[in-house]
Amino acid sequence: MPKITAARVIVTSPGRNFVTLKIETTDGVHGVGDATLNGRELAVASYLTDHVVPMLIGRDAHAIEDIWQYLYKGAYWRRGPVTMAAIAAVDTALWDIKAKIAGLPLYQLLGGASRTGVMVYGHANGATIEETLENAAVYAENGYKAIRLQSGVPGLKSVYGVSKDRFVYEPADGDLPTESLWSTEKYLRSVAPLFEAARDRLGWDVHLLHDVHHRLTPIEAGRLGKDLEPYRPFWMEDAVPAENQASFRIIRQHTTTPLAVGEVFNSIWDCKQLIEEQLIDYIRTTIVHAGGVTHLRKIASFADLHHVRTGCHGATDLSPVCMAAALHFDLSIPNFGIQEYMRHTEATDEVFPHAYSFHDGMLHPGEVVGLGVDIDEAEAAKYPYKRAYLPIARREDGSMHDW
Ligand code: EZ4
Ligand code: CO
Questions:
Q1: Burial per residue of 43-60, b for 16 or more beta-carbon CB atoms within 10 angstroms, e otherwise
Q2: CA dist., res. 26 & res. 58, Å (int)
Q3: Is the dihedral angle over the CA atoms 272, 276, 278, 283 positive or is it negative?
Q4: pLDDT, tens only, 191-235
Q5: Strands of 179-182's sheet, edge to edge?
Q6: φ, ψ at 13 (rounded to 5°)
Q7: Is 80 left (phi over 0), alpha (psi -120 to 50) or beta?
């Protein structure tokens, strides 16, 4: 029985901050887990180092479910992004260890491959519709089967999802939160023309997606969903802030545009009603923010009973360790839908050497034992933590809006 001998948190910032947990065992095998929480990284690092690691030493590394329950039920204070990211990191590292000891890539322990690869979507964006579609065309030429479209909004200086760089989007952009101006009216007028132009330019064989990023009310979201119906989007993401799950009943009453939600959810309880009442089509919870492989499998199984498929969050603030784990999960489950894929910088890929690869619009986790990803600690040490925040949004009258 491999025992946990040590666990360490490694914080590195190769272009952006990442928090990684590395667990070592008596078998000489180690595992890694992502614990990155954008803009609140050190809170998770402390939760792990100060509160979780002392509880792990000497435990059976194979007892993944029991350790998950021990950390979840044993804390008394349950759920929340900090707690669940910490549990996710432990869980992911333990699955890495178990798969390495078994001598198998992780997806084999999860039931084996259900598909040949994992369909991903890339992010095309631009200040204007023209620029966004130029970038989208490059994705299509590179084999992408699905593309997310975000465009600048006339009259607003900066909006979510539109980057300065063409192909790398990095939302955490200040050592204090930067402020952007928001107008729902201006935004709502801008999206349908983007999708109309996109179908003209890109045709109908490519999936098109859009992220509202929690900016609308339910009835506004119903309107937007209806406006987009003629262009058959793959999904409309995070249409409203989702603390109030019943909001989605209103959206559902007004549109057949498929709905995706959940990148900020931390547990099955955050999406229980959404799934049970079949109010959504895709659940976006991912490994690092929703309790690891163990808890994500529970969410996916529950979703499968209700015709809900997965669409895991995969932005650049989720490290390659999270991406590798997500790909093993995606490859194995029956109700996979799509995986978000934003490429990391070269420096990040050097810190986290990995076996997953992109081919013909799909990612594959590779055939290396375990997760097929590691952290190069010497490389990581070159990039010290740098405080960085996500922006905030204010309406034209100065009041706070959801970012
Ligand atoms: O804003 O991960 O769909 N992707 C997203 C991301 C999120 C960031 C926040 O840290 O919404 O770009
Ligand atoms: Co999103």
A1: ebbebbbeebbebbeebe
A2: 9
A3: positive
A4: 999 999 999 999 999 999 999 999 999 999 999 999 999 999 999
A5: 179-182, 392-395, 400-401
A6: -135, 65
A7: left
Q: What percent of the chain has pLDDT over 90?
A: 96
CA 116 / ligand 2 centre spacing (Å): 26
Using a CB cutoff of 5 Å, list residues around ligand 2, an ion. Answer: 211, 263
Helix%, strand%, coil% for the chain, nearest 5:
35, 20, 40
Domains and CATH numbers, the chain: 4-105 (3.30.390.10), 109-367 (3.20.20.120)
* Ligand 1 nearest-atom number relative to CA 237: 3
Ligand 1 neighbours, Cβ below 6 Å, are 38, 171, 211, 213, 263, 313, 315, 317, 340, 390
Give the pLDDT score at 220: 98
Angstrom distance (rounded) from CA 10 to CA 31? 13
Torsion of Cα atoms, 170 then 292 then 84 then 337, to 10°: 60
Identify the burial level of 22 via C-beta atoms within 10 angstroms of its C-beta, where 0-12 means exposed, 13-18 middle and 19 or more buried: buried
Q: Which ligand is nearest to the CA of 161?
A: 1
